[in-house]
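Quick note —
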Amino acid sequence: MFASSYDFFLDRSKHANFIDSVLIYYPLMQIVVPELLTITPESWNTAGHVPLVAVVPEMHRPNKDTLTGAYDAQGKLHMLSTLRDPKEHVVVISEDVRTKLYTKNNEPNFGRVKKSNAGKRCDIMLRMQTPESILSTNGISYYLKKEVSDFNNMIEEGCGGGGGGGSSSTSSCQRAALPNEGKDIIGDMSYQNFNVLKAVSDWTGSAKDFKMDIDHGGINGSAVKNFAVYFWVSRHTSSSCNFFIWCWATQFNPAVPTPSWDGTNDGDQMKYTLRALGNGTTRSASSTYTATGSNGTSPNYTVPKTITSKDKVLAEDYVKYCEQASGQGTRYGVNQLAYFYIHR
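Predicted structure written out below.
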């Protein structure tokens, strides 16, 4: 991201006006050399080659052929198709999807610990992790998202019952026998096929940045909660296999935890929504969430969301308390754009 790296490349005494204007009007601008199917960043000869510089148009959507202007070192304009990876390195300027921005006096309180009200059954506490990187400028703070990173939700989540289980926690439910502090794990994930990947991604955006929205609660008069998990992969962290393009682009295991299952307030199911994050302006949206309780009630809720204009829903499914949780767990998002496993 520009805000965290300009000190390494620019002299503020010479470029103060430019730096300030970017931080004020484009605070989340990022400058990246993307991993392409035709060429990798590691092969860039930085001493002998100046790459093209391209700006992603706001109107562009993946799987749409958009001509994107890119300039070479001599200032000559080259028009690149977004459907075909460039044959040389390209520096791409776009909106950052890995950084969360907070205005002054609105920063999360890192390190805060909150105990659950579950009483003696809750024997764990949740501490918000300090972010990997912090930078403050002009009254704005930037926090790098890393795995569990919706800090406000982490505060509210507490320990959520400490593995007390769902309302159907009988001996036949694996989660009752595999508490693991009440937390499930997001396991193996994959696009359904390579055509789906091409439909949601192109060289202007990584399609390796994801957000899992988890809606839960709403039983016995409790409030509906949303727990957001961010994660990403690259070819260095995806599943190991020999077919480079497929495995790098589609198969991976983020292995990140989800909220604890509160037996009193979460009922029998939680709603998981997997999104591929895109570069674009944010807007308000909403989704429908249905809670289920052991008494047979199934209240419906409208849950507000904040998404960007280029986010793509890859899979949406309900994880039920008594489904298989051991081993690889249960597969969700069947016949959707992507699938994922949840286990404990």
